Amino acid sequence: MKEDYGVKVYGWAQAGLIYNNNSTDDVSKQAFFNTDEGVNLNQFALGIQRSPVSNVQGRIGPFPGPMPLEADWGFNVTTVYGKDARFFKTYGWDEDLGVNRGNKPEDEAFTIAQAYLEFYFPVLGGSDLMLGIFHTPLGNEAGFPLPSPAPTDFYSHTYSFMHGPAKHAGALYSFKLPSAPGESMLGFEVGVVQGWNNLQSENHDPHVIANVRWRSADFGTWVDWENIYGNGAGDSFANCGCGSPMPAGSKDDTAQRYETYLTVSHQLDPANRIAVETSYGKQKNGALAGFANKTDATWYGANFNFHHQLSENLSWNNRAEWFYTDAPVQANIDLRTGIPDPSWGSFYAVTTNLSWLPTPNLRLRPEARYDIHSGPGRDAFGDGSRDSQLVLSFDATVFF
Questions:
Q1: Domains and CATH numbers, the chain
Q2: How many Å apart are CA 233 and CA 257, to the nearest integer?
Q3: Structure-model confidence comparison of residues 373 and 236, the more confident one
């Protein structure tokens, strides 16, 4: 099918084993998509895709080479089943599918994680338009367990990633400015979407996306500045565990939300790559806990990634992160109630793993992660009994 029509059918299956040292079955709520110790079916995904011939890709940025002179089109439909699927639920789209009704937040779910059309136009230096439901273009991480080389190669996730949007419904236009061969590349993205993880916006106010992407001439250095702004009131839904993770007000209120990410990555040499990501967010009327002594919520942080290729099929990955929130709504949301635990302050984490591909279609990944919470209120781990936590995990992913 790919040879005849350019259509690719693909998928992956990921399962993992998680253990922690806090004497409960509760792992760090905002580092993993699932929250329970033991064996979890994370994602079983199936996708069908046709990619347009282009020198710019939405959510990724500009690529070197001449601008294709003919318009082209493509599409993507990606379905996901498993414990992680709750992260990809879209309110008004797949949260109320029959297979998901009556599910607890920690149960497996089925989602249509992406369903969009994509068009390439030979204007400016090359243009790409996405229409539909698509994975967010914000942040350095991706929610799918992509094969290497991926932006990050970890089983767990950063606090900044888990406190941002997962997907959007709307339009995203990406374009590349004209550049001569051997020059650096500059691209821009603008989008209008139905907020965070929503197709049916209860407040009826769209969010605006505005991103800038720069690539060095040798494609070894990437700089990405990504932003989203809009009314975040009434777009979080505890009953389905979907919508925004930042509850604020009701659908009739106006509560502006802004989130920004700045990521710089650099390929030091063929075996070593580093990336630094900073993030900042603010939600008006987002400090829901009365004892927070404020109304607006802010959160921000930074993380550093180091990737070292030990051999052709074995890599060593390391990550250090710091995340701060001044209102408890921003950390450790209880998935069963949608109510934040009363923990805030600084969260620190270090993560290391080995990623081994014994065959091109199989990845095995042992990982260790250590978290520390420093701040007032309830301790963040072990159901409120610990201010630190060690998590050991092992995941296997089959790509097909």
A1: 2-399 (2.40.160.10)
A2: 9
A3: 373
